[in-house]
Each structure stands twice: as C-alpha cells, then as structure tokens.
Design a protein that fits this description.
By secondary structure, this protein is of the alpha/beta class. The protein has 2 domains: 176 residues, D-Maltodextrin-Binding Protein, domain 2 (3-Layer(aba) Sandwich); 143 residues, Periplasmic binding protein-like II (D-Maltodextrin-Binding Protein, domain 2, 3-Layer(aba) Sandwich), CATH 3.40.190. It has 14 helices and 12 strands. β1, α3 and β2 form a beta-alpha-beta unit. Belongs to the PstS family.
Length: 377
C-alpha cells in the first residue's frame, strides 16, 4: 500500500510502491476504440467502503483519455456504493471535454492541460457567479512506445524525438539513433510516427516536453492540436497504442497505463543525466515533484518542469485536472458532482491509482483539492 507524504516533494517518494501491473476492471461507457483497456479482478472493498454518497440521477462528464482507465474504476466503485447515481464519463480527449463543459453539456471535464485564460473567461457564462477551475486529480507518465522487431532496448533523446515526429528522421538506422544505441542492430525500416487525431492534453504535454528540451528542433508553439507535418493519427490513447502495436516501425506517445496493459515496448530517454531514464511511475514522480501551483482565484493549475535533468527523473509527465465551476454549478447535478469528486480526492480512491501505473496526489495538493471541492456551489 502506498504511503503518502506531505508536499510536492513527497510525490517522488510516495509513488515508490507504484506497480507497473494494471489491475483495472474497465466498465465505462466510452467508445474509445482501437486498443485494449486494462482489466483485472482487484478487490475494491476498501475503495468503496468510505464513499459518501450524494445526489441522484445521471452525471455526465467527458475529456481526457489519459485518466480514462482510472475514471472507469472510480466510476464503478462509486456506482456500486451509490445506486442512485449513474456516472457517464466519455474519453473524448481533453480538448473536446473542455469544449463540452464550456457549452454547458457536462457537469465536469477531464483535461491534461490547465485551462487557458480565455477559457476561464468564457466559463463565466456557464458558471454563473463563478468560473471554471482546475482540480489536479491524476498524475502520470507519458510513455514513448515503439514497434521495432528485434530491438528490445531503445534509447532516444529529445532532439531525436523532435526530428522523428517532425519527419526529419525517417529511418530507424539513422546515424542519430545509432549514436544513442551503440551495439544495437537497428534495421533500415521506415519510421511510422503516430500522433493523436483529436485535441489532446497528452499531445500538449508531449510537445511541451519537446519544446522545452529540444527548442531548436521543435519549431512549433505547442498546444492540444498536433502541429507538426507528416506522420499518421489515431483517436485517443487507446487508438495510438493499438496502431503502434500492430504497425512494424511505428512510434507514438501514450500514457504508461496503456503501454503496460498492451505490453508495448517503451523508449528510455537520454535526458542529460548520468544514465538513460526508464519510464516508471516513481521516475515520473521525481519530475512531478518540481511542479508548482500557478493558478489563482481558487484554480489549482500546476506548472511542470519538462526539461529536468535530475537523476532518474522521467520528464514527459502530465497531471489530469477535473474542471468544474467554482460557483454556478447546475443545481440538479451539484450534489452528485461534489460527492463523486470528493471520492476521487479521498485517500481510498487515490491509493487505487498505485496499481494502475498512475501517481497519487501528494497530500499537500490533495488537501487543497478536497477543500476546493467542499466549497463548490
């Protein structure tokens, strides 16, 4: 069981017990096709025992596919304990989720990118008397996955990744890749890079890493929409994972939970540390530990350090936020929204993340999230 420390630095140590094996039972209504969802039979008795129910009816939400695996399990736990509430979370991607929320179509949205100032301003027409706020809920590493038969240990760095995803390096035996992998028999196979079709917080965080760590090789402003030329696209995290798994020579980016569930190889990164860094929840936590709260007026948005060179720190990370109105939530769903989000931020729910390749919130941030949820009106 994970021991949760206080403070942002505590996340680096609090996730040591995170296992790479997924024990998730997927049960949501999302039709995010194109890949397998993690499944398993973990007991949820402890997770459901402390749930405080509230409200009734259907609670609609959508957004991040990065947290979809966790949200499926949480929804199942909550509905088992609270029979009067039906949770319907659709993994449409962060961009679509925020759009639906700002249109007033959902009770909350999941986004792997903090709200922009113009989105907060726009939200005031939906959040009567308040505004939309970011509530950090799920921390997790973004993996770089690949399909290169015969190559089981691949090292890349930010400049090489930037050139691959910008169609400047097109063969696996390119000299830049060979230099990073001495002694590895790299084939002349064409590289098939896959990115997300829809606006995505995973894309936003992945390209923020490229922009921060390889600014001269990634000439794009970044954001949730893919901007580079070339490559192929797939819908959602599951879609990218599926396409990479079935395409020889492919490379893509997706959350570690999807890579683990589908048994897809992951790249190690040369970050400038003394040794290449493997992707693990603990290594991602070492990078997330540098995050700072930068939101104002109740917004708890975090700023991540994508260019860290700390020993063992995996720099391609994201934190998924639940986006909700600080005030002006719809009266018919307010009670259920508060009850469900309160459960997500609870110790019992956060501890279930450790078995899903996600990182639980550090106590310092979690307590602020819980206070914010309690104040929703």
């Amino acid at each position: 069981m994970l021991t949760r420390k206080s403070g942002l630095r505590g996340l680096a140590f609090g996730a040591i017990a995170v296992s790479s094996a997924l024990v998730l039972t997927a049960c949501g209504t999302d039709n995010n096709s194109g890949g397998s969802s993690p499944s398993g039979g973990a007991s949820n008795a402890a997770a459901t025992g402390s749930i405080k129910c509230g409200g009734k009816g259907q609670l609609l939400a959508s957004g991040s596919t990065a947290q979809k695996n966790a949200m499926d399990q949480w929804s199942k736990n909550f509905m088992q304990a609270c029979s009067g509430v039906q949770i319907n979370y659709k993994g449409t991607g962060s961009g679509a989720g925020v759009t639906e929320f700002l249109q007033g179509s959902t009770a909350f949205a999941g986004s792997d990118s903090p709200l922009k100032s113009e989105q907060i301003s726009q939200s005031k027409s939906v959040c009567k008397g308040g505004q939309a706020i970011d509530l950090p809920m799920v921390g997790g590493p973004i993996s770089v996955i690949y399909n290169l038969p015969g190559v089981n240990n691949l090292v890349l760095d930010a400049p090489t990744l930037a050139k691959i995803f910008n169609s400047q390096i097109v063969k696996w035996d390119d000299p830049a890749i060979k230099k990073l992998n001495p002694g590895v028999n790299l084939p002349s196979t064409s590289i098939q890079p896959f990115h997300r079709t829809e606006d995505s917080g995973t894309t936003d965080n992945f390209t923020k890493y490229l922009k921060a760590a390889a600014p001269s090789d990634w000439p794009y402003s970044g954001g949730q929409a893919w901007q580079a030329k070339g490559g192929q696209s797939a819908q959602g995290s599951a879609g990218v994972t599926s396409q990479v798994k079935q395409t020889a020579g492919a490379i893509g980016y997706t959350e570690l939970s999807y890579a683990t569930a589908n048994n897809v190889p992951t790249v190690k990164l040369n970050t400038g540390a003394s040794a290449p860094v493997a992707i693990t929840p603990d290594n991602a936590s070492k990078a997330i530990a540098d995050a700072k709260i930068v939101g104002t007026n109740g917004d708890l948005a975090l700023k991540l350090n994508y260019s860290t060179k700390a020993e063992g720190a995996w720099p391609i990370v994201l934190v998924t936020n639940e986006i909700v109105c600080s005030k002006g939530n719809k009266p018919d769903t307010l009670a259920a929204t508060k009850a469900f989000l309160s459960y997500l931020a609870s110790d019992s729910a956060q501890k279930t993340l450790s078995s899903q390749s996600y990182a639980p919130l550090p106590s310092e941030i979690d307590s602020k999230v819980q206070d914010a949820i309690a104040s929703l009106s």
